[in-house]
Inverse folding.
């Protein structure tokens, strides 16, 4: 199984992987959760990690007594906040140089442009909205750093978005993740968590791009 196939399998069957990890390594699972969310939100080279589905599954596992809900949410919250803060600082350090970068193995230029267009349209609220949008959430704090958003203002949006995202999705998994119908269709739900917010983000970026083009034409 190559890396791409393994990654797709991990995303679509993350419930099995996390449950197996808990059974074999116990408390170390909290370190794994921190690492996944921090890397997804903190490093622009890892936008494909499964933040939404991970939190939903963690909530469901907590409801089964395999993990502690309060500890899990606290770890995920710290990871989400510190990840965005790290990404923001990287963007501040790199600055406008990023606009000359081209797509590569380590930098997705198209995803960056979409996040930038989304940020241009919605401003600081993008940091909150992007939490629920795969790929966009990885690049939004980076874009805010490049745009030199005030750090205190960014931190406010960062914490607010992290709380809504982690607690909201985690509790949704805790309350609904073990319903028989949900368990039966979990793979489809995970696809929905990936595709629906992604389509919304693409639409928002497309509208922002059109608006920007219209302003230039005038």
């Amino acid at each position: 199984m190559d890396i791409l196939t393994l990654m797709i399998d991990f995303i679509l069957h993350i419930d099995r992987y996390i449950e197996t990890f808990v059974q074999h390594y116990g408390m170390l699972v909290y370190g794994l959760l921190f690492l996944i969310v921090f890397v997804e939100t903190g490093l622009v080279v890892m936008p494909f990690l499964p933040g939404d589905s991970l939190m939903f599954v963690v909530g469901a596992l907590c409801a089964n007594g395999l993990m502690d809900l309060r500890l899990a949410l606290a770890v995920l919250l710290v990871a989400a906040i510190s990840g965005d803060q790290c990404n923001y600082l990287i963007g501040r350090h790199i600055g406008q140089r990023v606009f000359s970068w081209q797509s590569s193995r380590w930098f997705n230029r198209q995803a960056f442009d979409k996040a930038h267009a989304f940020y241009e349209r919605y401003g600081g609220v993008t940091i909150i909205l992007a939490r629920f949008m795969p790929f966009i959430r990885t690049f939004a704090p980076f874009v805010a750093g490049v745009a030199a958003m005030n750090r205190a203002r960014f931190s406010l949006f960062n914490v607010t978005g992290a709380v809504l995202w982690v607690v909201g999705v985690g509790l949704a998994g805790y309350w609904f993740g073990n319903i028989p119908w949900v368990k039966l269709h979990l793979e489809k739900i995970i696809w929905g968590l990936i595709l629906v917010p992604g389509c919304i983000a693409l639409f928002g970026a497309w509208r922002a791009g059109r608006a920007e083009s219209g302003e230039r034409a005038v």
